[in-house]
Specification:
The complex is a heterodimer. Chain A is α/β, with parallel strands linked by helices. In chain A, the strands form 2 sheets. Chain A has a 6-stranded mixed sheet, sandwiched between helices. In chain A, strands 2-1-4-5 form a 4-stranded antiparallel sheet, covered by helices on one side. Chain B is an all-alpha fold. The radius of gyration of chain B is 20 Å and the shape is elongated. The chains are: A alpha/beta, B mainly alpha. Chains A and B meet through strand 6 and helix 2 of A and helix 5 and helix 6 of B.
Chain lengths: 265, 205
């Protein structure tokens, strides 16, 4: 077996708020991700999925344990890991083009290379004609296209996605899911995709990691064996999809119910 | 009054004082606002000063500045500066505080080193707030300038108003007030137009 692309070892995170008791967000989380794998992480809200992703991105530090990427322990953001947030986090003062350019300029590429990459990713994400618009002039779906283009243009090996389609309407969401799959088929990047939608997780990923409710732990891992070359219609009506979806759903449901018990008293 | 150039000269004197006070207030106010938002030590020192002096009517300080600086341009500029700096500090402070963490994270993951985050993200993200602070500081500077000139000046629009009023030339007095109001209005409109041009990306209400 080859070396893992990402290795999460005994990861815990405790938040100490100024008032009140410490919150254990994650407790002893372990998993490995192979190069080129598409992993979905699902769980009830507040289970620390986003916290986990932010630690892998290097934005926040674990309380215990470690994250190893390509054999090196990480503790800060790096060019190998790109992030896409739910609420886009576009730079509002930059145009669509300016946003996509941002990372390329930080990389110090020369102007020709930047122009070439910008137009490539504008085409890839279907943003032609919007180059000079500001984020506030775009719909949620278009903003997320820009955010994905910005991250892809930087060409990270790992794509970390924090509920990227969670704020979009159902139709836009399906469209972007299909586009993400197409891009993944083409580029074979390693993807970690956080979502609370079981359908989305099973439709997109090769492996679903289910988290327990607080403190977040890995409850179960379900392998997904779907033929991604089929159309959406054929995939979601296949027996494999329905069975896998059910398996994941039962686990998630159990955690959501537990969560309710804690919240409701 | 117009023929002798009295009005124009006094208007220019007042506008220069306002410009001087505002300029200092903007430069120092933005720097201090940033420092307070990012360095707890600076914040702990200046926060009580800002909070306590905010409700203080700045013209109340005129007698004191007259003792320190005499009846000079410096005294007038200083009081205008004091009045105008507070909204700049407060708005800059809130602008920096309200920068979304995720914008900073996005920049870091796109290769911006920690030391450049300020110029690349924090400053542009807080410009709408800073602009708002300047917009509030502008009329404050106009108000304070007239109040200062009533007392601690031998020239300027405030001085002219009190002079005509003392001698009962009320028509002249109102003419001066009207001109000043018009000039202030035009300057405010121009400022807003410039801000809207440069902040057309901003999605605030």
């Amino acid at each position: 077996m080859g070396r893992s692309k990402i290795s999460v070892r005994g990861l815990s995170k405790v938040f100490n708020p100024l008032k009140g008791n410490p919150v254990v967000a994650l407790e002893n989380v372990n998993f490995d991700v192979e190069e080129g794998e598409f992993i979905a992480i699902v769980g009830p809200s507040g289970c620390g999925k986003s916290t986990l992703l932010y630690m892998i991105a290097g934005f926040i530090q674990p309380t215990k344990g470690e994250i190893i990427v390509d054999g090196r322990r990480i503790n800060s953001p790096g060019p190998d890991r790109g992030i896409v947030f739910q609420e886009y986090a576009l730079f509002p003062w930059l145009t669509v083009e300016g946003n996509i350019k941002y990372g390329l300029e930080e990389k110090g590429l020369d102007q020709d290379e930047i122009d070439e990459k910008v137009s490539k990713y504008i085409r890839l994400m279907g943003l032609e004609g919007f180059e000079h618009k500001y984020p506030k002039e775009l719909s949620g779906g278009m903003k997320q296209r820009v955010a994905i283009a910005r991250t892809l243009a930087y060409e990270p090996e790992i794509l970390l996605m924090d509920e990227p389609f969670g704020a979009l309407d159902a139709q836009t969401r399906e469209l972007l899911q299909e586009e993400l799959l197409r891009i993944w088929e083409e580029t074979r990047k390693t993807v970690l995709f956080v979502t609370h939608s079981v359908d989305e997780a099973v439709y997109l990923s090769q492996r679903v990691i289910i988290m327990t409710c607080r403190p977040g732990r890995v409850k179960n891992t379900v392998n997904v064996r779907l033929d991604k070359t089929l159309s959406r219609e054929d995939v979601i009506t296949s027996r494999e999809f329905v069975e896998t979806r059910h398996k994941v759903w039962v686990d998630v449901r159990e955690e959501v119910m537990k969560h309710y018990c804690i919240v409701e008293g | 009054m117009i023929l002798t150039g009295e009005l124009i000269i006094n208007l220019i004197i007042t506008l220069f004082r306002i410009a001087g006070g505002l300029f200092l207030a903007i430069v120092i106010g933005i720097s201090l606002g940033f420092a307070m938002a990012t360095k707890p030590l600076v914040r702990n020192f200046f926060d009580p000063i800002v909070t306590l002096t905010y409700p203080l009517p700045k013209p109340a300080l005129v007698p004191l500045t007259m003792v320190w600086l005499g009846v000079t341009n410096k005294a007038a500029v200083f009081v205008i500066f004091l009045g105008a700096i507070l909204p700049v500090i407060i708005n800059t402070f809130h602008g920096v505080k309200s920068v979304d963490d995720r914008l900073i994270w996005a920049a870091k993951s796109l290769g911006t080193p920690e030391k450049n985050i300020f110029w690349k993200v924090v400053l542009p993200a807080s410009t709408p707030y800073i602009a708002n602070g300047i917009r509030i500081a502008l009329p404050v500077a106009f108000i304070v300038s007239i109040s200062v000139e009533f007392v601690a000046s031998r020239a300027g629009m405030g001085n002219l108003i009190s002079y005509y009023s003392d001698f009962g030339f009320y028509d002249y007095m109102f003419a001066v007030i009207l001109v000043f109001v018009l000039v202030a209005f035009v300057i405010d409109r121009v400022t807003v137009a410039i801000m809207e041009r440069y902040l057309r990306w901003y999605d605030g209400k």
